[in-house]
UniProtKB/TrEMBL annotation:
BP GO terms, sorted: lipid biosynthetic process
Entries under InterPro entries matching the protein: Fatty_acid_hydroxylase (IPR006694), Sterol_Desaturase_Related (IPR050307)
Domain Fatty acid hydroxylase: 87-235
Biological source species: Limnohabitans radicicola
Domain of life of the native organism: Bacteria
Transmembrane feature ranges: 6-24, 44-69, 131-150, 156-174
Record protein name field: Sterol desaturase family protein
Length: 302
């Protein structure tokens, strides 16, 4: 098997593994109440990322490289593995941190709000976004350029597998970190871990419907693979607790946006009473108390 085949096999194993844990733990049954609208958005986004967006980025960077800089093809192939990992972390994960952070600004929010409109956490949410969010993601294009330059093989494959392990785990309905916080002997390890990579506790806080409880932190905790970026750039909040609700206030008040508006804005625009998915639309900034009921969906503490 070559590196790409090994990568794909391990990715499938990761998805199946987390899916099995969601079902075994009954977290999927108890907390994931997806609509047909949710399923269409998540399915079509996942397929489009695999079949359209990633191939476009890789093929385009390869063609541009061959046209503009043929002499640089494979020039980094002899780098040591740790140097390749270092440049991948900077070119992919650091840029994704900033792209994610900027996507919470009024200008780019319509391209990312689909990821936050899910009223549940699960691995199925991981790639739920607007089509153009991924097409414009700098890290995807930088990764394509690095592949052209020779940063590939098993190093790239294992980087992808490790990153997917972390981000699938951070979105998973099964909160793998929750019981570990209760074990005194693991406290030093968990202190380091939750400051190094994204965990369910820190990432669920990012998906919270409100910040008013001191747990939610949807304007922070932007890290994907590494949570270190949030530590460095002042956007981290660590509580080891989980928000009672995830999702968006405006969807609670005005109804869920249709999947095709969420996926294809600005090509398709919403006519909902209050929406960010039209030209001239805006992020809803109203109080959360009107939209959040006292009944817990996700549980609150670790």
């Amino acid at each position: 098997m070559n590196a790409s085949q090994i990568q794909n096999l391990l990715v499938v194993c990761l998805i199946l593994g987390f899916a099995i844990m969601e079902f075994i733990s009954r977290r999927y049954r108890d907390t994931v109440h997806a609509t047909g609208n949710d399923t269409k958005l998540e399915l079509f986004m996942f397929l489009s990322l695999l079949a359209i967006t990633q191939p476009i980025a890789i093929l385009t960077t390869s063609k541009l490289g061959a046209w503009l800089a043929p002499q640089y093809k494979g020039m980094l192939a002899d780098w040591p593995w740790w140097a390749m990992v270092g440049i991948l972390i900077l070119a992919d994960d650091l840029t994704q941190y900033w792209w994610h952070r900027l996507s919470h600004s009024p200008l780019l929010w319509p391209l990312h709000r689909a990821h936050h409109s899910a009223e549940y956490m699960s691995i199925r949410v991981t790639f739920r976004n607007n089509f153009f969010y991924y097409l414009m993601m700098p890290g995807l294009w930088f990764a394509g350029a690095l592949l052209y330059l020779g940063v590939g093989g098993m190093v790239y494959a294992m980087y992808v597998v490790v990153k997917l392990f972390v981000i699938l785990g951070a979105h998973c309905a099964w909160r793998w970190d929750e019981p570990l916080y209760r074990i005194p002997a693991l406290r030093p390890l968990m202190w380091v871990l939750e400051r190094t990579i994204s965990t369910p506790a820190t990432h669920w806080a990012h998906h919270a419907i409100t910040n008013e409880d001191g747990i939610g932190h949807y304007k922070g905790n932007f890290g994907n693979l590494l949570f270190i970026w949030d530590q460095i750039f002042g956007s981290a909040l660590i509580t080891r607790k989980f928000p009672e609700r995830v999702g968006l206030i405006d969807d609670k008040l005005f109804g869920q946006e249709r999947w095709y508006h969420q996926m294809f804005f600005p090509l398709l625009q919403s006519s909902r009473e209050h929406t960010a998915l039209k030209f001239g639309g805006s992020i809803y900034e109203g109080p959360a108390t009107a939209a959040v009921s006292p009944t817990s969906q996700t549980g609150t503490t670790a």
